[in-house]
Amino acid sequence: MSQLERIYSFHQKLKADSFPNAQTLMEEFELSRSTAHRDISYMRDRLLAPLEFNSSRKGFYYTDKEFSLPFEDSPKILFLMGVLNKMADEAGLGSLPEMKKLEKRLSQLVAPGYEKLMENTLCQWIEVETLAPSIFETIIDAVLRDRLLEIEYRSAQGLSSSRTLEPQRLINYQGRWYLLAYCLLRKDHRLFHMARMEKAKSGKKWTSPKRPAPEYFINDAFGIFTGKIVYHARIAFTGTAAELVKRQFWHEKQTIEKQKDGIILSLPVNDDREISMKILQYGSRATVIAPEALRRRVSDEIRKMALCYL
After folding, report:
1. Spatial separation of the C-alpha atoms in residues 238 and 118, rounded to whole Å
2. pLDDT tens digit string along 149-187?
3. How far is Cα 94 from Cα 103, in angstroms, rounded to an integer?
4. Residue 193 confidence (pLDDT)
5. What are the phi and psi torsion angles at 199 (to 5°)?
6. What is the C-alpha radius of gyration for the chain, rounded to an integer number of angstroms?
């Protein structure tokens, strides 16, 4: 039984005006007298419980009847902390030693019921990428301490390169981790897919002033390929796709027009790649209305896909 669970039990007896004392804790939890006294001192000194001892009743009571313990009767806060922990797992951080320690500490210190909540809470993303803990820790260190980051990086085409970066921002997008950094090799800002980093080493302090990210990293357009708006896509959704998409948030500047047989989603786009994948996942229930270039790209991809099944 954790200390906090003992404290909660003692707290409930205080709220019920039953005047518990050290002997109460000793008998209920089979504690030594010194441990029981430490629990009571912890309540008074660390949790600022308004405890007083009633000599005639030989027990403690609250001088302030409105006092409550942290997280008492706060299932929403407890749930939020649990979900954040689950999300860390799904974001590929579950293997970090720090996350394991946090999970253990929460289960012991937050409140009774935390472990049960975790057993009955599921937070699941798809296509989650697990990062090597040593690489993630090195990146965090470089970001926090303004140090150069030396990496071995493999591109989507499988080409390897050595880069020295000025790291600026960690980004988690759809379960994948990215690092926004100034690349000394390319002399420009780049977005690096952290799962493609094969090695990472923290270097010396930056010798140059911090270079602000250019405007095209502001989230004006849809998806991870942010930047200046190139066009506004208009996509018609029908049937079950329409029912799903009308409740989804793709971009803060999106608009949805209701149609007799579905909806039309409009949103700003900078790059065709991600929006094309989103459209294709809805199959025949999604049709590009505009622009024509996006219609052609999606149409060409559909034809290529069809050839794979001939």
Report:
1. 38
2. 999 999 888 899 999 999 988 888 877 889 989 999 999
3. 10
4. 92
5. -145, 150
6. 28
List, in order of start, the domains of the chain with CATH numbers.
3-62 (1.10.10), 75-119 (no CATH), 133-213 (2.30.30), 231-307 (no CATH)
Instruction: Give the per-residue pLDDT at 69.
Output: 80
Tell me, yes or no, if the pTM score tops 0.70.
no
- Kindly list the strands in the beta sheet with 197-205, ordered across the sheet, starting from the edge strand earlier in the chain: 188-193, 176-183, 160-173, 147-154, 197-205
* Conformational region of residue 239, where left means phi above 0, alpha means psi within -120 to 50, and beta covers everything else: left
User: Which one, of 282, 141, 253, lies nearest residue 200 by Cα?
Assistant: 141
58, two tokens: 């030989």
- Per this entry, what is the length of the chain? 310
Beta-carbon contacts of 269 under 8 Å, excluding residues fewer than 6 positions away, are 221, 222, 223, 229, 230, 231, 232, 233, 275, 294
DSSP letter assigned to residue 293: H
Token match 């065709």: residue? 272
What does the pLDDT look like over 109-126, one tens digit per residue? 455 555 666 667 666 666
pLDDT at 305 over 80: yes
* Per-residue pLDDT at 216: 47
Strand partners, 106: none
What distance lies between CA 218 and its chain's CA centroid?
20
Query: What is the reported pLDDT for 68?
Result: 84
Residue whose structure tokens are 């602000």: 212
